[in-house]
Specification:
With 354 residues, the chain is of the alpha/beta class. It is built from eleven helices and ten strands.
């Protein structure tokens, strides 16, 4: 595994450094003179021979306990992504490897069909996805997420979609079909309205303007939609919360949620390097604010705290968010989805399992 270390960001990539994999004993440290790269590495797509597609978790603070992740790793390259350390379990780095070596679950739709057909499956809400974005750039070509939605629409199994990509509007037909049975909610994640900042934070995700347009288009086509102000980055994006929610409501969003910046494992030093590269004059203020909501540390793993933080600044963010939601008419309708119309997928012979 090669470790990238740089003082300036690579074009089109979010990681400024790639820290060593915590599980690997051998690390290749490139000679800065002999192996200086002229540019960002290309993206590789690797087959993931998954045997199961519905994942489960027991966390009480993420809002779901079943999820589908068609991809592992994410080309959007968000500098702050809490999911980066998951790539270390594959022998990769949480840095550039996470955004350039993407694992692709080609059989996701077939696996999903099999699991929903099983008698052991109890219809319940599935998150698409719980870790990496289901609509990252390669989805436009591969259509794996769309395949999963086709199965979910056929079965009328409720799903919540969270993405940073306008590509979600491509599947408005399937999302609209699920909406007929009150079985879908779509959330566009919006960190900032500043396109220049978004380009540095989330280099290969859709622009904030296109995400708002996606909300507007989905709502026009009868798909319930909202926004996630996530993550809220202390001293960088927190002041934008009212403006983001106002823009979201103007686009037709019905709901909004928020998550405080999370920096587990290797993400903390990576984000610190990102701040040093992009906001050197503000670095100490940003890091100080983060520690103030994490009991003096860069991260707090405790359930009930990790998503929101604690202390005066965290309370201020919460109050700003809740006040803005009331002001702009968000979260007036319940988020609950219906499972009453669920039906098992059809067999190859066209019979319907009940």
């Amino acid at each position: 595994m090669t470790v990238h270390d740089a003082t300036t960001p690579l074009k089109g990539r979010g990681a400024v450094i790639s820290p060593p994999n915590r599980f690997e004993r051998l690390v290749h440290e490139p000679d800065p003179e002999a192996e200086r790269s002229p540019g960002a590495p290309p993206t590789e797509y690797l087959r993931d021979p998954a045997r199961q597609i519905i994942a489960s978790n027991d966390s009480p603070d993420v809002g779901f306990d079943r999820s589908i992740n068609p991809y592992r790793g994410c080309e959007h390259g968000c500098a702050y992504c809490y999911a980066r350390p998951t790539h270390e379990y594959l022998g990769f780095s949480a840095g550039l490897d996470f955004e350039t070596r993407i694992m692709v679950k080609e059989d996701a739709a077939a696996l999903l069909r099999k699991e929903l057909a099983a008698r052991s499956w109890t219809p319940q809400v599935i998150a698409l996805s719980g870790v990496t974005d289901p609509y990252q750039p390669i989805e436009k070509k591969l259509g794996i997420t769309r395949g999963c939605l086709e199965v979910l629409a056929e079965c009328r199994n409720p799903v919540v979609v969270v993405t940073k990509n306008q590509l979600v509007t491509r599947d408005a037909d399937l999302l609209g079909e699920l909406a007929r049975f009150d079985a879908v909610r779509v959330f566009l994640s919006i960190t900032t309205l500043d396109p220049a900042l978004a380009n540095r934070l989330e280099p290969r995700a859709s622009s904030p303007r296109l995400r708002l347009e996606a909300v507007r288009e989905l709502r026009a086509r009868g798909v319930p939609a909202g926004v996630m102000v996530a993550p809220v980055i202390p001293a960088i994006t927190d002041h934008e919360i009212p403006k983001i929610l106002e823009a979201a409501a103007g686009a037709g969003a019905e709901w909004a949620g928020w998550v405080m910046l999370r920096l587990p494992g290797a993400v903390a030093p990576m984000f610190e390097a990102w701040v040093e590269a992009h906001f050197p004059d503000r670095k100490e203020k940003v890091l100080s604010r983060i520690r103030s909501i994490r009991d003096g540390a860069m991260y707090d793993t405790r359930w009930g705290v990790r998503q929101r933080g604690q202390g005066p600044f965290a309370d201020q963010v919460r109050a700003m968010f809740e006040t803005s939601c009331r002001r702009f008419g968000l979260n007036r309708r319940k988020l609950e989805l219906s499972t009453e119309h669920f039906r098992r997928p059809r067999s190859d012979q066209g019979e319907l399992f009940r």
